[in-house]
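re the bet — no i am not wrong, look at it urself. input seq straight from the record:
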Amino acid sequence: MLQNLDFISENELAEWVESHLQTDECALSTGYQGRTLLYQESTSEDAHKLVIKVALGNFLSRPVNLSLLRHEYRVYQKLQGMDTVPVCYGMVKEKYLVIEFIEGMTIRQNRPEKNSEFYVKLLGAIKEMHRRGVAHNDLKRKENLLVTHDEQPVMIDFGVSIIKKNRLRWLNGYLFNLVAQFDYNAWCRHKYDKQIHELSDEDKKYYNKTFIEIYSRKIKRFYKDRVLGLF
């Protein structure tokens, strides 16, 4: 069900999605899990724009991918009202996730300077996200962090985020805290452009490389140096 969307009905949007799924005309991205489409009401500059995420796959993988999409919707519900997260308008027919389109560039394309207010606002957004019981889990990926024209941070793509829950409290709490540290480490890497040795005394308290990050790096290095060297 869609909420706070008055320029198109749910049925109209569903028809639009189904008519554009098989073409690349409005595709923003396509992966093994799904496709992301850009809906634009018209060609005028002030036309309404929406990002629509669709789960894809075969009879085995599609239910899993659809479950991840619904999980992302639950995450957006918990983050409702944060100006550093796109507005989520809901699910169309319980299978298409509809999100606000944000004009901006990825931090890969437009990285603010280290002393920019951008990183202060991003850190505040990460703390608020954690306070609401969500840890992003993939902020290190530069495509998941947008920089608007006035250098405001926007976090996107919450498909693998962890939600803090009461059930399985020990395991869930452990995973949440681990992933929350991933988020802080990603913030440090973005701010210092991976030059961790330059961390200020104030920022050092946010960086704590986890054992997963340490060993995944070693595995990647071994693969690159030893395995690929055989071919």
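see?? The chain has two domains: 10-100, 105-230. told u. also Residues 222-231 have pLDDT under 50 and may be disordered. so pay up
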